[in-house]
Amino acid sequence: VQLQASGGGLVQAGGSLRLSCATSGRSFRNYAVGWFRQAAGNERELVAAIGWSDEITYEEDFAKGRFTISRDDAKNTVYLHMTSLKPEDTAVYYCAARRGRWFGVNDDEYAYWGQGTQVTVSS
Predict the structure, then answer these.
(1) Phi/psi at 88 (nearest 5 deg)?
(2) Torsion sign across C-alpha atoms 52, 86, 20, 105
(3) Cα separation of 36 and 39, whole Å?
(4) How many CB atoms lie within 10 A of CB 114?
(5) What pLDDT digit, counting tens, does each position of 71-108 carry?
(6) I want to staple 78 with a disulfide (CB 3.0 to 4.6 A). Which of 12, 25, 44, 71 is the partner?
(7) Dihedral over Cα of 86, 91, 92, 96: its sign
(8) Alpha-carbon distance 82 to 79, whole Å?
(9) Residue 62: which residues within 8 A CB-CB, separation 6 or more?
(10) Got the DSSP string for 7-54?
C-alpha cells in the first residue's frame, strides 16, 4: 500500500487544517490507519487512529476535542481535521496503515507509511 499525506502548511494559532492520507492503486477498505507526528527533537507519537470501520476511532488526550479522524473509503482517503491549533502542534505528520479491523497505538504496529507533511503553527 502506497500512502500519500498532504494538507500541511503554515497556520496561525487557533487556526485549522485538514490533512489527507490517500492510497494509490489499492483500496483502504481493509486497513486501519493512524496519524502520527514527530516534532523536532522528539520521538514520533500517535495523534489519532481509525479502524476499518469509521465507528472505531481513537484520539490521544492532546487531540481530543480538537482533532477528528475520519475516512472515506469511496475516495480511499483518511482525514485528520485539526482545529484550535497550538504552536506545540508543530510537527511533521505521518499517516500509516495496517491491514485489519483494529488500529494500533504504536508505530511498529503499522507496516505502511506515507512521506509526511509539515504542519507549522505560529503564535
Answers:
(1) -70, -5
(2) negative
(3) 10
(4) 24
(5) 999 999 999 999 999 999 999 999 999 999 999 999 99
(6) 71
(7) negative
(8) 9
(9) none
(10) --EEEETT--EEEEEEEESS-STTEEEEEEEE-TTS--EEEEEE-SST
